[in-house]
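Think of the structure tokens as a kind of shorthand, similar to the way a musician reads notation: each symbol stands for something richer, in this case the local conformation of the backbone. In the example below we present two proteins back to back. Begin with the first one, reading the sequence and then the tokens, and try to describe in your own words what changes along the chain.
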Amino acid sequence: LEKMTDLVAVWEVALSDGVHKIEFEHGTTSGKRVVYVDGKEEIRREWMFKLVGKETFTVGATKTKAAINIDAVSGFAYEYTLEINGKSLKKYLENRLKTTNTWILNLGGTDYRIVLEKDTMDVWCNGQKMETAGEFVEDGTETHFTVADHSCCIKAVSSGKRKEGIIHTLIVDNTEIPEAVE
């Protein structure tokens, strides 16, 4: 297997089903374009006469739309930008901070990454969408699920402040888990 000699860009993208690595090779002499997602080749084009353009593909179990834009900056210099769901990576990640909560925890020596999608109330753990049971409680809602025989619950409680909205808290075996910053 040839080593990635024309690797020009690498991005790490945190989605609900995990953190994905996107790598892009661009051979400006051969016109080659190769996109790898998590080390797996997704797109390979040889002898592209047009060196600028766009490559579109999907990422992860959720088949999230992604695109790499190739733009000429000057002479033989190129700029590569990644878009996720039609937004620049920066805008996508800023929006994701508002629409999801992420917790990283270790149970019995294994690391778990738990993600709550606030709009759908879907819960993901290490890339798998979890089976959950929701219930209304006195001060809000509770979403129950199990991770490695540990009882987990995401409590959703109003902050009482409009700007803050609803506060989501993960509780595992009666212990509150601090939210992770990705």
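Once you have a description of the first chain, move to the second and do the same.
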Amino acid sequence: TGDWGEPSITLRPPNEATASTPVQYWQHHPEKLIFQSCDYKAFYLGSMLVKELRGTESTQDACAKMRKSTEQMKKVPTIVLSVSYKGVKFIDATNKNIIAEHEIRNISCAAQDPEDLSTFAYITKDLKTNHHYCHVFTAFDVNLAYEIILTLGQAFEVAYQLALQARKGGHSSTLPESFENKPSKPIPKPRVSIRKSV
């Protein structure tokens, strides 16, 4: 938690950056996602192979299946989701070991489970096997799940704006060249009529 001055990048509001978001303000200062990370505790229900990518439908299928398969489990692991513009790390809450790390460019879809809004998931691409996996989590409450999804959306937007800035400035970016023109990228293309703030 730092007192950041004026943001170094300008983000589109959530309702312009992602089609399904009704809110108009991001939760965090962009610099927090650039220089630090937003950390959230959640339960990790597990991951499953996604045979056919169908966007939100794939995440919702995985959520339903993982919820059913973990109902009988006595103890579901608690993890810390650490979100930044570079991606998501999930860390064992007990021993602080990093369990997995997913680069933002390999995350394609994040959504809440419509049947249980405290459950949410995101899909990643495994670069070694070229398969997609859906990772499913349950937050301690619905509002936290919503905030995590919104923060993931903001991380996509920050990464996208940094890539644009790097292109304009001619600097080499930490993001690969293919970041912007990947067909399965999570960030929608800017609309033709972007509203300018007066």
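Compare your description with these statements about the second chain. The mean pLDDT is 79.
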